[in-house]
């Protein structure tokens, strides 16, 4: 159900990502796409946080830290790439972010292809912890 709730927000995010991809094309560093997408999302009236620190704990003790590229409306994690293709490692990275953050939705956006490549993930770990 949570995935359906955020589908309108997801569509706004994807629309902005396609705009960035179409305007910039391929060949830039990931940070260029991240900064550009942040501007596009904010221009749509969305709340966007960049490079959000996410602590990782083991048995209640901090053991590391992730940095989320963009967090939109404190709901959706965006992991940006500028690669030839989305890889299993990219997918695992986002799934780990979802599990550690307890956010319900995550998107991988790959700007390294001629046409924007994206994948949407629902945090299935939340259902187990709520249930």
Gist?
With 131 residues, the chain is of the alpha+beta class. The protein is 43% helix and 31% strand.
Plain-language structure description:
The chain has one domain (2-130): tt1808, chain A, CATH 3.90.1570. 43% of the residues lie in helices and 31% in strands. The chain has helices at residues 2-5, 7-24, 30-43, 88-101, 125-130; strands spanning 48-58, 61-72, 76-81, 105-110, 117-122. β1 (48-58) and β2 form a beta hairpin. α2 (7-24) packs across α3. The longest helix is centred in the N-terminal third of the chain and has 18 residues, at 7-24.
CATH architecture: Alpha-Beta Complex
Give the strand line-up of the largest sheet.
1-2-3-4-5
Count of helical segments?
5
Radius of gyration: 15 Å
Q: Alpha-carbon distance between the termini?
A: 14 Å
Largest sheet: 5 strands, mixed
* Proportion of helical residues: 40-55%
* Fold-level CATH name: tt1808, chain A
CATH top level is: Alpha Beta
Strand content: 25-35%
Please mark out the parts with pLDDT under 50 across 5 or more consecutive residues, or reply none.
Answer: none
Task: Give me the count of strands.
Answer: 5
Mean pLDDT: 90
Structural class, from secondary structure content?
A: alpha+beta
Number of domains: 1
Q: What is the H/E string? A: HHHEEEHEEH
Q: What overall geometry do the principal axes of the alpha carbons give? A: globular
List keywords for this structure.
single chain; 131 residues; alpha+beta; tt1808, chain A
């Amino acid at each position: 159900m949570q995935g359906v709730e955020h589908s309108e927000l997801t569509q706004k995010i994807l629309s902005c990502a396609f705009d960035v991809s179409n305007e910039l094309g391929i060949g830039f560093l990931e940070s260029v796409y991240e900064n550009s997408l942040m501007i596009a999302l904010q221009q749509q009236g969305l709340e966007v946080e960049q490079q959000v620190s996410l602590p990782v704990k083991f048995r209640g003790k901090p053991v590391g830290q992730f940095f989320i590229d963009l967090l939109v409306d404190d709901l959706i994690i965006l992991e940006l790439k500028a690669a030839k293709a989305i890889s299993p490692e990219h997918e695992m990275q986002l799934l780990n972010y979802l599990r550690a953050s307890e956010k319900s939705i995550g998107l991988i956006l790959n700007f390294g292809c001629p046409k924007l490549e994206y994948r949407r993930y629902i945090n299935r770990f939340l259902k187990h912890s709520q249930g």
